[in-house]
Write a structure and sequence with these properties.
By secondary structure, this protein is α+β, with helices and mostly antiparallel strands. The protein has two helices and six strands. Helices cover about 15% and strands about 40% of the residues. Strand 1 and strand 2 form a beta hairpin.
Length: about 120
């Protein structure tokens, strides 16, 4: 009986381990998502029926965000005129709010936001 050198066996095992397995399905994403986005500013509109709200940043740019059942809101109920800091992700072309922090009135007066007509 012939003996196979140990290094040959290890080399064959390494090649087999590195080659892609046809038994595993490929993992291609079916949806596009981006994580880790944020916006801070003043809530200009709230639509409870559509579960959306609009935040105007100090630069004047407005961002429309969608609330879900998983959206965490820290503070009272979301209202127009509230100063907020929002973390969101983009999923299927929508900006989904993951967390909303409503600033207290005392904190909101410290950092003013640009008026509605300025850009």
């Amino acid at each position: 009986m012939k003996r196979i050198p140990a290094f040959a066996v290890l080399t064959i095992l390494a090649v087999l381990a590195a080659s892609p397995s046809s038994a595993e399905p490929s993992r291609t994403p079916t949806r596009t998502m981006s994580h880790g986005n944020s916006v801070a500013g003043v809530v200009t509109r709230v639509d409870m029926g559509a579960r959306t709200f609009v935040v105007r940043a100090p630069s004047g740019a407005e961002t429309t965000l969608t609330q879900t059942g998983a959206t965490r809101i820290r503070g009272a109920a979301l209202r127009s005129g509230d100063r907020v800091a929002v973390r969101w992700l983009e999923k299927d072309g929508k900006k989904i709010a993951t967390s909303v922090r409503i600033e207290t009135p005392a904190l909101a007066t410290i950092t003013p936001t640009a008026p509605a007509g300025t850009r």
